[in-house]
């Protein structure tokens, strides 16, 4: 009998390895997508203190907020607008560029779990927004013309800035070798809101503070530590680490 070359079995081994990964990830992914994944409750008081309050109306800081928006509005380019639209949806897959992989295909478990862990951050942010009730800049100042879809929620703190900073910190805890790239994209997720007139700079700065502090609480929780140690999570992270640093795309500023 003619021997069958070993290389003929390579596709089967490859398929088998991905089947094992899928089997590991499926239960945890299902829990994350269904809302059954255990996530911690945030301690609200210290996070509210970190956020603080927006500049008082008519103050020098409030005037500076507006002056920055007006200057940026004049400096907008099609590339700035396009980059801001690319970060409109708060989705973990927006960090694909920072990691150098297609997160839709490579990290479905991580994507679903991040959404679950970030829900309490969004909830607390909404509470602070409702309590502070700062009007959006384009509401108080008709000369501000946004380049993103209008939103009716309050302005302080920025939800996008909060979400992107928290998401970038969580991802950086999982992939510290990509930390600088992740945080850079996380900052841009908030800055895009100022570039397009959706938020004052102070809204975005407050969101950055809230996102970083909330992520720190999540990272210290036993739920996050258990998630981080899960073999299915580690398998996805190993796939991400295969992207060579030399091949990582340039981040758009």
Brief account:
With 253 residues, the protein is an all-alpha fold. The chain is 66% helix and 0% strand.
List the helices and strands and how they pair.
Blueprint lengths: L9 H25 L9 H8 L8 H16 L2 H9 L9 H4 L3 H4 L1 H25 L4 H4 L18 H16 L4 H17 L5 H20 L1 H8 L1 H11 L12
Helix pairs in contact: 1-7, 1-13, 2-11, 4-10, 7-9, 9-10, 9-11, 10-11
Description:
- It is a single chain.
- The protein is mostly helical and 253 residues long.
- The chain has a single domain (13-247), classed as Vanadium-containing Chloroperoxidase, domain 1.
- 66% of the residues lie in helices and 0% in strands.
- It is built from 13 helices and no strands.
- The chain has helices spanning 10-34, 44-51, 60-75, 78-86, 96-99, 103-106, 108-132, 137-140, 159-174, 179-195, 201-220, 222-229, 231-241.
- Helix 1 (10-34) packs across helix 13 (231-241) and helix 9 (159-174) packs parallel to helix 11 (201-220).
- The longest helix is centred in the N-terminal third of the chain and has 25 residues, at 10-34.
- The protein is globular and about 55 Å long.
What characteristics describe this protein?
253 residues, 0% strand, mainly alpha, Vanadium-containing Chloroperoxidase, domain 1, 13 helices
What is the CATH third-level topology name?
Answer: Vanadium-containing Chloroperoxidase, domain 1
- Helix percent reads 55-70%
Task: Please tally the helical runs, counting DSSP H or I stretches of 4 or more residues.
Answer: 13
Largest sheet: none
- The ordered H/E elements are HHHHHHHHHHHHH
Q: Got a strand count?
A: 0
Indicate the overall shape: globular
Between the first and last Cα atoms, what is the distance in angstroms? 62 Å
Structural class: mainly alpha
What's the mean pLDDT score?
87
Give me the CATH superfamily.
Answer: Phosphatidic acid phosphatase type 2/haloperoxidase
